Amino acid sequence: MKLKYPVGKTVARLVRHAWAENKALFFRFGVYTLAAAIYPMLAVALPKLILGELTQAAPSIERLAWIVVGFFLAAAATGYTAKYLAQATYMELCKLRLGHLTDMLAKSLVMRYSLTEDAGFYDAHEMAISANSSNGRGVEAVYHALFEMPAVLLASLVYVGLIGSKNLLLLAVVLLHVAAVFWASREAHAFRYSLKKEIGHEQRRLRYYRQTASDFSYGKDVRIYGFGKRILANFKQEIDAYVSTYKRIHNREFLLGFAVLGAMLLSDAVTYGILIRDVVRGMGIDDFSMYLAAAASLSIQLKLFAEKLGTIYSEGEYANEFFNLMDEDLNDPGGTLPAVANDTLEIQFHNVSFQYPNTEKYIFQNFNFTIHKGERLAVVGVNGAGKSTLVKLMTGLFAPTEGEITINGQPIGAYNKQALYSMFSVVFQDVNVFAFTLRENVSCRADGDRARVLDALDRAGLGEKVRALPKQEEQVLLKVLEEGGTELSGGEAQKLAIARALYKDANMVILDEPTAALDALAEAEIYKDFAALADGKTAVFISHRLASTKFCDHIALLDENGLAEYGTHEELMALGGKYYEMFTVQGRYYSEHPTEVGA
Amino acid sequence: MKQWRKFSQFFSFVWRISPSLVFLVMAAALLPSAQAALNMFLPKLLIDELTGACRAQSLLLYGGAIAGSNLGIALLQNVVKRGRSVRSIYVTHMTYRAIAEKSMKLPFANLESAKCLDLKERAIFGMVNQDALYDMIDSVAVLLQSIATILTALVVLLGLSPILVLLLIACIAGNLAAQAKMMQAQLAHYQSLIPVNRKFEYYLQLCAESSVQKDVRLYGMRGLFMERIRMYMQESTERMETFMKKNGRFEGFCSILNDLQSALAYGYAGLRVLGAFAGKAPVSLGSLTMYVSAAASFSKSATALGAQAVRVVAMLGYLDPFLEFMALPDQASQSGARPFPGQIDSISFEHVSFRYPESDAFVLRDVSFEIHGGEKISIVGLNGAGKTTLVKLLCRLYEPQEGRICINGVDILEYDREQYLAAVAAVFQDYKLFAFSIDENITGKQAGSDLVGSGSVIRRVGLGEKMAELDDGIYTLIGKNYDEKGIELSGGERQKIAIARALYKNAPLVILDEPTSALDPLAEAEIYENFNALIGDKTALYISHRMSSSVFCDRILLLENGTVAAFDTHAALMQKKDGLYYKLFDAQAKNYRKEG
Fold first, then answer.
1. Residues 6+ apart with CB under 8 A from A86
2. What is the ipTM of this complex?
3. Which residue of B has its CA nearest to A502?
């Protein structure tokens, strides 16, 4: 059989990891293996010894008692040891997996940002990502199987020796039966695998219905547009398709089952035939019962062995994928330049072209543009003109496909990545509020400074609200983790994000569509906050609300072809181009009508 | 008794979905019992023959019977397994569908209740994470099997010795007592683990959440995330370790008890073979194997019985939220009977007060106003003033605690619910599109059943060109998480489809709640300027933070803290320079006015 991946290397790496993490584990493993191998053998030995004693010419009650007591003591000791160690060691193995998981998370949080937006990356590494997700999957499943398998193997070998020395044919039929079981399960697995694509497709659809059909947030549209019947009908259709696929699989398993039944019948017939014949020829009934029990036990142990081996092979693939991911260099540490000190930023785009990875469409082509030191720049444009992409490029979240971006004259790639990130305070439209304390939410660290946090909250206009909370800045936000957690309204969340930006006090400030969901007064307040944030710094305000241009020095209007217009408000209005059109369209009902009516 | 009711509720639910599964479970239970019984009797006959007369014909018969019965039972088991596996998958998914169906039938108030949401989450959690449905069915099967096996073994063993039976029962009682104690510890352990794990899971998911990755990098949040994960991971594993060690001691103890039972059975039966008890006839070697096998079956089944009984109770605990959720009353019972006239002459709120079911604060207080048929009304107010709530009441998603809402002079609650809802087309700010084709999203019907209608509204909202660009046109599926061939639409395009859906409905009352927040100025203007033309003489309500949109409307309903602050034309409201409306309007307008 050709292996899909290097099993031996993967297992060796897992074992090395275990050895490095926990050497005591290997001692426990040794004790467990002995106890777990001996324990089931005692159940085979007991009837042999008892029947042997009873069929002696002069059976003795005393010896009988010793056999029973001896069995009990040996079984109690090995049984207890095996059972206890299996449980007590479980978490040791689990911790090995959690160690891997922690490593992976730590890696994922610093990997190149572009990968986080790349669905293809997640698809390609799905196995690696799920390798550490649960006790019964991937890495931990392999650890458990590796822990348990040697005991099973040891017991099997003893039975093989016992039965083989008695009669090789007997051994052969038992092995044949087990081989048939193993073969049938491989075949069933292969058949299931051949339907993998269909199953994956159907599961994906079912998952959608499972999540969406009972999602309460769909409730309004379901009721008002009567979508219920449509959804339930489509859902049922998907269930039926899925069930009929599984019917094919189980029918195949059923057919394969006949081969197993045949092997079982052969094994039973030969086993009983040989043993009965031998008893007729003078073998003791004690041996008869022992071999019978040994044959049954061997069959069980071998099935277990095959199962563990199968687990190591199939789940090991996840572990292998995981190691491959960990070996990959996903980080982009950037250059060696430190953050700009005591100065704000000037950002220049030189002939920049950009397309998102794995897409055809250019968002920018030969884009040339300068954001001057200390200016306030409004970036406006129609949907899809690349306003948000601009932010991702200048903060280094994405690298240009062609051309170069410089910050204060130095190529953006020359800056150390952490240093680069540290130079920007960015506020996005969708604010992430976390179930941390307010202090942690603002400072983004566990040891954020209380006074500075309160100051930032004050300047963002949340100070009053925070001081009125029972635990003030130590109040936990959201209700997901704590029932008494505080929920913020949309406007408050925006202010929290602004406080975050203020606390960070970075060299440059960017606001990306921060007002779309806010009422007019809250919107006006954000504009005020912008002034506080931008104080003396280069600042960019991105919005499709043209009102934002009012308090900016320059306006850049982007369209599908990149930079369409650039200048001051007056210049662009005089130009009479797209900006003029958008401004008048949006402002028409504010400026003409009301001033006439009002004044 | 309460447990029993839940139990029967659960099985009647399964029965309604798939009666055959219930039969298959019974069959699956009885086959191993039959096998256990055969394994007691047939080897006895064989061994007695071997140690006795040793007739070739009888040996062949008994040996053949053993092999034959093994074969027959294995075959039957395969038959049952095939059916059961398929039916289980069906029932599992139909259960999710039943939860969905229930969610659709519930009164809307439930959908915004944190309690009900939590109940549903727990109902699904039990199903998905605990596999409660399948485990429950499985446990019941093993339970039945244990009872059948115990009865058989008991008959056999009583024939040997009531004293042995008593001894075995004593062992089993010890086992069950230990199990009950362990179960307590287990429940307490998992209870204490839930909050820790919830926190752990929260931070874990946060790390995988794509929307937070920008913040993680730009604000250097990695340290904070990892610290929390390590902290809760450690707390969780420490608790688990303590518990697993305890569980190990418990399982070790059970193992010892089990070995004691074997020793007792062998020892006693061995003594009987030797005729050690005066007054009791010696038994044969064949009988010894039978008794020992019966004793083993007896203790194994009795232990399983206890374990499964405990498991059934635990599973009922997991299924409890599901059963409770499914027992919530449906909306239909609250439907009115009066046919809806199909045309709107007036809408009036009469002293309407409303607060959300789980809250003390009134969102709307004594709200009264009247809208004439065909009027276009803009509802204006600060975030939280009650605008969306008012619309929800009008859509009969909620009912007011005080006052009434009338259309054409009749309380809207008196109208037939289905007819009434057919007369309202609302686009909410959190509108949803489904992963169906664009066509289905607009019509709500089977794809392609009204291409003329859907095509016309698609063109009217300005998506005609976009459809022409798509390979599958209006049949294109929305979203990639459902089908690889689906497309992701921009926020603006999605909003336009939602508006097209409302237009398609051709209802006399149209409501738009923040319909243009994702649109750029030109697209926004296009919607506003065309909308009055699009909807013609229908009655319309708009909610928007873009104050300019109210200029298009006949009148403005100004809400302030849940009360009607004003209800007048734009021109009239702009006269009041100290009013909220003027302030709101001016806050935006001044940015568009020429300087000076």
1. A32, A36, A148, B248, B251
2. 0.86
3. B219
